[in-house]
TrEMBL record:
PANTHER family (UniProt xref): ALPHA/BETA-HYDROLASES SUPERFAMILY PROTEIN, LIPASE-RELATED
All residue ranges annotated as the AB hydrolase-1 domain in the record: 14-251
Any Pfam family the entry gives: Abhydrolase_6
The name this protein goes by in its record: Alpha/beta hydrolase
Lineage: Bacteria, Pseudomonadati, Pseudomonadota, Alphaproteobacteria, Sphingomonadales
Keyword annotations: Hydrolase
InterPro entries: AB_hydrolase_1, AB_hydrolase_fold
Source organism superkingdom: Bacteria
Gene Ontology molecular function, alphabetical: hydrolase activity
Organism name: Aurantiacibacter gilvus
Amino acid sequence: MTMHYTRTGRGKPLLLVHGLGATCGSWDTISPALSRVREVIAVDLPGHGQTPEEADSGTFDGLARSLDSWLRTENLIGVDMVGSSLGARLVLEMARRGQSGAVAALDPGGFWHGWERTFFKATITPSVALVRALRPALSAITGNVAGRTALMAQLSARPWALDPAFVARELKSLADTRTVNSLVKDLANGAMQAGPANTAAPVVIGWGRKDRLCLPQQADRAMKAFPEATLHWFERSGHFPMWDQPEETVRVILDATSVSGSK
């Protein structure tokens, strides 16, 4: 299994796994700070960014299989991991399989229940369609505070404060990811993420109090699945703490992974 990735910094390796429709660049708000003390490895999941899709890349199980295989190929079994959204669920799954070191999972998907599944699918699907339709004009739209706020209101608690060029790049990545719709369908209809973690290293689950995609009440289910985990609330954050509260996110990640005896 080959996946595109970047490596920056020096020190103990730290793997960053992005979310749905994103790329390794989604971490640019915090990767420079992390790379001052860690060797930061940020991947493009299959079907995202510069990593080609595989036959099963439109499913969560397919992405988990690919990530598991890549960890073995790169001799990264036991590496500390950070994930966001879909990526957060993936790093929890790697912890469940015993493939991770310490884990920081930021607003993980996979803990929807009942109407929340419909809510997830019914809100994200038209959003993807809209972003694809607006793709030629995204740079101009996100350069405007009102436009940026309208497009990012579900994902950020402070969309007006985000860097316009960064937002445009993230939305273009979402528009360009061919597997997004099949992943949304699979995630909305699939089984809830199972636990517990099969690692002695720390597991931290972070959740934005203002998350409008993976709703805050889902944190309780995540903690029941991973009872060994510690829950950290990002009080002023939406779905992406590394965008809304980058300094706090860096502290949480480094605290979670600094005491791990993993690779």
